[in-house]
Task: structure prediction
Amino acid sequence: MRSVDSNVVVGKSKDFALRCIRLYQLLVKDRSEFVLSKQLLRSGTSIGANVKEALRGQSKADFAMKLNIALKEASESEYWIELLGESKILNEHEFKSIHDDCTELIKILTSIVKTTYRSIHNS
Result:
């Protein structure tokens, strides 16, 4: 349905997934934090997987549904990041950096989902 090459949301979601992987490794190794970091690893890497799947959607509705799942995973990731920050497992700089990336992804995904649903309902 859409070109996968040089797609902004594909790149940003993959970069975010890689950040979540590195953060998970740091938290497990250096801070002995296993529960919240595992939850973030799962939701944070799922965003990009759902974005990629959306791009191969069979219809606009399928595309929108998969991107909406990616948006839900991004919102879940934001929750785990907030818990990691508020519990002081992440320092302020670490929290702000990854939280900003997550917020940006949420904004992009929200915009795409809203636009896609509008185009489906106006067809």
